Each structure stands twice: as structure tokens, then as C-alpha cells.
Amino acid sequence: MTQHTRPATPVDIPRLVPLLLQDAEERHALDPVLWRIAADAPARIEEALRFALTAEDQPVRQFWLVGESDGALTGVIHAMLLPVPPIYAGAFGPPGLILADSQTAADAPAGTVDALVAAAEEAMRAAGAELLLSSFVTGATWQTAFAARGYDPLTLYLSRTDLGEDGRPSGVRAATEDDVPGIVIRSAENRQVLSGIDAFWEPHPEADARFAAWMTRSLTLRDREMLVAGDPDRLEGYVIAQPASRMHFPPAHDIRGTGVVDDYFHPDFGAPAMLAEGGAGATALLRAAEAAFAARGMGAAFVVCPAGWTSKLEMLEAAGYDVAMVWSIKRQAGAERAPCGRQSS
């Protein structure tokens, strides 16, 4: 049986939709709340594929590749060039990212996953990616293939679906414009820890000004809650409770019930190797974010944590969070990592 990989075309869409729906159902089986499937999932998948494969003006460069054997599709892999957030230097340019909505057919021959990953890597490198990232949720074969090809955990995404109804903890309040300078100071501490964990997060020289502008704008956005602890001149920490985006959730999933915590810092986990004060202050901010999600009718929280940030991971696990997704990194020669803390496996 001869197998090869090639770029997907619009002709493949009818065969790709059921394959990607199966992929979504496997995530749903792991956590039905976090990975809730949309009622019109097949239509959403088809729409996303058609846009990716036919639209001339796209916000990011995508790659859809398929495996094929004797005319039958054996699998699909989805990748993209990931835009560098404006607060980071991005010294190596936009990395390539293999996304979670990649799947193989039930009868795919051995080696299909590795062949698809190799094809995606070749496409991303040809597009100029010096750093390669992979996203993993389900399927031990995918995890094994990524590890075998030199990917190491970079970022963990932890989730909790029991948000409770306890309300906002005392000592945590809504942020105001007066809090922005304090949030920026704490964000700078956060960025310092991140860059110490891995050079991937090297801050941009204008990070403070860019983050201040974004926080000021965020105060006007009604789809999120900005929460802080402490007085404006002695801000203890901050957390932004915002809606989920398609970056982490493929189109088959209904993301209206999921909130994301990314911008989040408290000195309790400021030392990456050791949690201070039992994480009480940091946990209070997290519970406030959960209460904000619950008040908006959301049932799941999705929190970002670098794999090497031991104290933050410890705090999140103690708060009832489990790893739901892993982003791993593979570097080319010359793109070496900085010294860092413990790497999670």
C-alpha cells in the first residue's frame, strides 16, 4: 500500500468533514463541558475548511495537508504561522504551529502520523518558521510522534469545569484606569519570569507601553472582566477573565461556555520554583475569575501556564485544575533555549 502526503484541496472537503468531526468527538469524550460540540459542527468545519482552502485574503497563513493511500484519505494535519504577540520580541520570527484539529483514519497504516507531522514541518520551514510548535490533546500516537521528533513541553493549558457559585472573594475588585500602571508593573514581573524560563518569551523593548495601551483598551471591552487585588499604588496582582478564541478550540466546538485566563500574575508564584503563602492570594484572584465566568453563564475555565513555571502549576493543580492541552516546541540549530526551571512532562 503506497502512501503519500499532499496539500489539501477543496475537493477533499466532503471527506475531511467526518474525519475532523471524529477528532472533535474524541476531545469531547475527554471533557464534555470544555470540548462541547456545536449543534451545527459539520457546517462549521466545512465553512472553516472552505475559507482556509479558497480565500485569498487570510489573517494568518494556514497549511492543511492530507495523507492518501490508494485514493483514500488516511489522515489530515492542520498547521499555521503563529503571529508573535506585540509584547514579545519574536527574535526568531513567527513560529509554525501544528494545531489540535489533526486526525488519522481508523484504518490508517502505521507511520501515518509521523508522515503527516514531517510534511507539516517541511511546509512550515519552507514558509520561514525557525521555531516549530505542536498542540496535543488526545491520541497517544500523536504525543509519541511529537516526542520522537524532538518536541519538548513549552506551555500547559489547564482546565476546570466546576466553577461553583461562591461569588468573588473579598479583597478582589474590578480594575479601573487608576490600576493600569500597577498592572503594567506586575506584568513586567510576569514577563521577567517568563523570559527566565525560556527565551521564547523574550520581551519586546516597548512591552510596557504596548501592554499599558492594551490594558487601557481592555477596560472598555464588555466581553471580559479585569480584576485586581490591592490598592492602585500597591497592587498585589491582577487577572483578566476573557472569552475563549479559535486559537485553542477548533471550529467544531462551541466556545461560548468557556473562559480563558492568560494575563494573570501574583507574587505568590513569582518565584518559579517555589509557591509562597500557599498561593492564597493567587488563588483568590483565580476564584474571582471563575466567578466572573460563572456570572456570564460559562461552565469551564482554561488557564495558560508555562511548563517550566513550577510554582504556578502547583497553585493551579491545588485549585482543582488539570492539564487539558500541551503545546510543545522544537527548535532549529541556533534557536537555543535559555536556562529554565523544571519542565513538565
CATH structural fold name of the largest domain: Aminopeptidase
The N- and C-terminal alpha carbons lie at a distance of 36 Å
Percent strand equals 15-25%
Major β-sheet profile = 13 strands, mixed
The SSE string, one letter per element, is: EHHEEEEHEHEEHHEEEHEHE
What is the name of the CATH architecture of the largest domain? 3-Layer(aba) Sandwich
Name the poorly predicted regions. Answer: 337-345
Shape: globular
Whole-number count of domains: 2
Helix content: 25-40%
Count of beta strands: 13
Q: Which structural class do the helices and strands define?
A: alpha+beta
Helix count from the secondary structure assignment: 8
Text of the CATH class of the largest domain:
Alpha Beta
| Mean model confidence by pLDDT | 94
> What is the CATH superfamily label of the largest domain?
Gcn5-related N-acetyltransferase (GNAT)
What Rg, in angstroms, do the CA atoms define?
A: 21 Å
Protein name: N-acetyltransferase domain-containing protein
Organism: Pseudooceanicola nanhaiensis
